[in-house]
Design brief:
262 residues, alpha/beta, Rossmann fold, 8-stranded mixed beta sheet, 9 helices, 8 strands, 20% strand
Length: 262
């Protein structure tokens, strides 16, 4: 496999940006055949970081490179700062960056598939929110999405923060009372995808029972069940910690539809 540290200028953000990319080994040539340049376009997992992390965290805190060995799967790990994968009210357009520019740039530089059935997204905490936001907003682009300890109820988080006179989420999303029903509200996106009756991505959700986001995850699960939206939900002992996410990313790789098949 190849691990590539990619630095590129983002036209959306107007600054140098980073993403790390894992690419599978090419197929070995048949005996007696001269090796050719790889033409296959790989299935791709966009793997998203949490609030206090960056594009390097999955490599530093898990063995993601080793876990995807032999799966014929590329992994793209971009950096979005503390943006909540959102076009911020005061700040940069990180939603446009992650939803439009990152896939386009990654496919320009690397042999990555554009086919829906070969595109996946997953993340932890803030990245779990970003993963579900991408898949529920663009079900025609992603066949599956996974959230680990996801910050799935940003409406509640914003209301709690603003009630405590803190300001970070206000700078990202604006006033909390305007979040409900907006394109940043996962509950609204879930209802919308059911109402539209089109493609539905497969969803996987996990959260530790001692995690401070556990109640929000249970709430989201109950809401999606009430809509008839199928979500594979699992939980287990653990808090908001890497020992849990390291184990669960391995579970996700076995759950993703079609992974490992050439």
């Amino acid at each position: 496999m190849a691990l590539i540290h990619c630095h590129f200028f983002s036209q959306v953000l107007g600054l140098m940006s980073t993403m790390d990319v894992i690419l599978p080994d090419p197929r070995p040539p048949e005996e007696g055949v001269t090796p050719q340049i790889q033409q296959e376009r790989y299935p791709t997992l966009y793997l998203l970081h949490g609030l206090s992390d960056d594009h390097t965290i999955w490599q530093r805190r898990t063995s993601i490179e080793r876990y995807v060995e032999g799966l014929n799967l590329a992994v793209v790990m971009p950096s979005v700062q503390r943006s909540f994968y959102t076009d911020m009210v005061t700040g940069q357009r990180y939603w446009t960056f992650i939803s439009e520019e990152v896939p386009a740039v990654a496919r320009h530089f690397f042999p990555l598939s554009e086919v829906r059935d070969k595109n996946y997204v997953a993340g932890l905490s803030m990245g779990g929110y970003g993963a579900f936001k991408l898949a529920l907003t663009y079900p025609d682009r992603y066949v599956a999405a996974a959230s680990l300890s996801g910050a799935l109820d940003v409406v509640r988080l914003a209301q709690a923060e603003q009630a405590a006179s803190q300001s970070e989420l206000k700078y990202i999303f604006g006033e909390a009372n305007a979040l409900t029903g907006s394109p940043n509200d996962l509950f609204s996106l879930a209802a919308q995808i059911v109402d539209e009756g089109g493609s539905r991505p497969s969803l996987y959700q996990w959260c530790g029972t001692e995690d401070f986001l556990h109640t929000d995850n249970v709430h989201f699960r109950a809401y999606t069940e009430s809509l008839g939206l199928a979500v594979t939900y699992e939980e287990g002992p653990g808090g908001h910690e890497w020992s849990c996410w390291d184990a669960q990313i391995q579970r996700i790789l076995t759950w993703l539809p079609g992974v490992g098949k050439r």
